[in-house]
Amino acid sequence: MSKQYLTLHTIDDAHPSDIFALAPTPSQVLSASGSSSIRIYDTTSPDFPLVQTLEGVHPLGIHHLVTAKEARRAASVGFEGKVKIWTQTEEGEWKQHGEISDQVKAGDIWAVALSADGNYLASSSINGKVHVWSVSEDGMPKIREYETKGSFGLCVGLSQDGRFTASGHENGSVYIFNNDTGRLAHSLAGLVHPVRSVAFSPASKLLAAGGDARIIALYDVNSGEQVANFTGHGGWILSLDWSDTGEYLLSGSHDSKAKVWRIETRSCVATHSHGDKPLWTAKWLPKSTRSEMFALGGGNNAISFYREAAG
Amino acid sequence: MEFEEFEDVLFGVPLSHGSFADARDDEFDDEILEAQSDGEDILWDLGSSPTLTPALTANTPDKSTVENLGRAATASALAGSGRPARAIQDRDWVIARIEEMLETVVDGLLDDAHPVCITLTSRSGLTRRRPNPSEANEAIPSPRVQQISFPGSNAQEAWRFTVLVRILELVHSCLVDNAVMTKRDMYYRHPDLFMKQSVVDRYVDDLACTLRVSRSQLNVTAAAKGLVAGNFLIRRENGTVAHGLSEDEGILIPKVHDSDELDLSLIRWILVMEKEAGSRIARLASLTSSKATFRSLLSSSRWRELGSHGLVLTAKGYPDLASRKLLRQLADEIPHIPMYAFVDFDPDGIAIMSTYKHGSYRLAHEDVTSKDTPGLHLPDLQWLGVQSHHISQSPVTESDTETGPAGDPQGLMRLTARDRKKAHRMLEWDMCAEDGPEPVWREELQRMLMLNIKAEMQILDELPGGLVAWLSSKLDVLQGSRSPVLSICSDNELLF
What we know:
The complex is a heterodimer. Chain A contains no helices and 28 strands. By secondary structure, chain A is mainly beta. Chain B is an alpha/beta fold. Chain A: It holds the Pfam family WD40.
């Protein structure tokens, strides 16, 4: 029961160095790399033109870049330690909206995630703390602070409804926090190795987590039970993303392979190779046309777009 | 004994220069001086433990010193008054302390109310005065505190003050540039001021004692530390010949004078290695390492052949001037011969390579060399490894389970907080800037930070045939002379 995805387009040299993050909107994909600039490509034209470059926004390079699913908002984190919030004008141009500075020192924040409405930003940190910020309020205050056992929070997720925050840690821990109560909901066991990506399903019912164990674990958000294990990746899993419908999970790995998993059958339905360098980021594009599309970015400095084969 | 006499010359009653010159020309016994404060040869930037937590290893070597010094802690205003008993004594901390000492001097010069003086804690000689050997096992005696002021009461004291300020300045510049200096280097900087080597040795040790760090944490080492091996000859003016393969474990970095003749006709490549032997800690942790090093290369069966047309050098960490000078002479002599760097995949590895290649990074962007190291850069030095793509090559098995702080058996380790800080600082170097001269360094530092991993050179021992086979095939490929596949396979069993 495999699915066919065809390469639609590849932007070679999309960035001068490793592409660490892709963040799609309905009509664009924002991209970040070891360079200082965010480059924005139009995903509605067949040749995926570069439409905007946010020059020199993080001089030491950008390690995380995310967009809100249903709002014109993005957040970027640079190696210099700053977190910048971006908004898109009606005309489609991206502008800096602000910088998170409330009770935060540069470098405190590692991974970030935005809620679907773009109002909340969750962050992980080197010391294991997990924070939530209200980025639509004046001053972008910190509204939640979760303590963990202090292991480096390599990745963070925020459910689309904003109710849950999840974090994945270097010691293999995965935590789910309830943002309504401000408490730890579940401490999820099972991965042992560094967890490099966590992602909530669109309905916020499932959490996928993956990392150096090369296994993708699916957890039930409400019960905290592990409900499935996807095995097949030969390299560390660096990126996880759910399709809009929640039917498919896209994963990217350090050995440059991307896989598409069908949740219903718990099986891998497609595998693609993106050169021979680490695949840092693999993202579905919001479903705007008939067919599903995803984008891959990694150590080969290129962004490749794939489309589901018709039929 | 001479030691006490000499100490008296240095610190005691004023004596004429005549009697000073009479002091025996022996060197202080490093072992005894260092046994008190300096048991481990840990340099800030090269001794960090790859496998244990940084706090633990950074503090362990001088822990006993701290405890023993506790009583005297209050005595020295310079050694950290108002600070927690054990602040994190990284390189920046030491730099700040030295700057405080120098500021005190400047304050004294600016303000008549302040005396121009430096407070020094010295433990030198105390142990030797123990009348009874049975006390040897007791706690190390408290150090003495003394003030050295300027101009002082006599010429001797003025001289001591001058020596100390100059040493402070030298140590400060070493630390700021993250360069390592031998005590010998320091002495030769101002032989007329320092009079003799032991003066430098003494004050450097006292400075370390005052700051309660080990001497190596001042980036000062005992002696030329580099080793070199290979099929080369140095024909001395006096007719003697030194051969680079004369010792099984390599020869100490030789000084090549203008009048000497270097015969490098058989050398096809030059390899600069970070380490002489596996780090103590790595050995303890995994018992498997110590292969991917200078020493292991020389002891491998492959060396007989490799060494016949190559030259390997290690300065054991951050290079000293002697090693850099020799490499520069080699590069001048045989500029067409490729020179490779083989260092750990961690921020220090890149920083070490950077010191070989560009010298002090702070000066590199200005395209000038510091006055002490004219033209010692090696701009053509190539990075052989370890790089991030070598890590993904190394085989990983499912048995690769959590091994706690000791890291994976494969030799992959997590970055420590210090590593991350260092990587961030290095990303700010001009040479790692977006359009700077070392884009690959920038990328590799970023990849380390992204994955939060590092790896020692030893990781390549996991490859078939081990590191030596990897190195020889890599060198063969780069030389374009032989099939790399063949050399790996044929040596598989031979080596390990």
